[in-house]
Amino acid sequence: MEDWKVGFAFCGSFCTYDKAMAALEEVHRRWPDVTPIISERSAATDTRFGNAHDFMREMQRICDRRPIDSIRAAEPIGPKKLLDVLVICPCTGNTLAKLAAGITDSSVTMAAKAHLRNGRPLVIAVATNDGLASSAKNIGALLDKKNVYFVPFRQDDPEGKPTSLVADFDRIPETVEAAMAGRQVQPVLLGSL
């Protein structure tokens, strides 16, 4: 097993947090040095899917360290080369747009910017209701960006939410390994559930 330092960043697709926590557990089992990162909005928003404080406490329990939850705390990731690979799971349409446009206004986008400056892989596990609508252009732009890799994704509810895309979170470890070798896992586009 490689001794990779992994960042695992959460954005606000709250309905996927249970699956994202399971993915974080698996990543931590494979690579024990995991730094949790959470967007400021996610760290402060209670939803019908759970209490923000409980999610933060669970991230800390899994990783045995407090999540990074501010731009200021995320900035040293680059200069100090704190991570070998950074996973954003779930990655919302809002964060996809910011990454594609180079906007750095949250702990997650700062972590990504700081990490990418070192030429190291960024792994995106998309979860957005507009993946085949307004976010499609941002997915396309990021697919073409150096050192950015996608966890294979699919339409999660083609009839009820025809533009919604969600990554197969179970494939995060496989995607991390491929990204560390400079490869995109194929196929990127999976069949519907």
From TrEMBL:
Short name of one Pfam family: Flavoprotein
Organism superkingdom: Bacteria
Domain Flavoprotein: 5-165
NCBIfam families: PRK08305.1, spore_dpaB
Record's protein name: Dipicolinate synthase subunit B
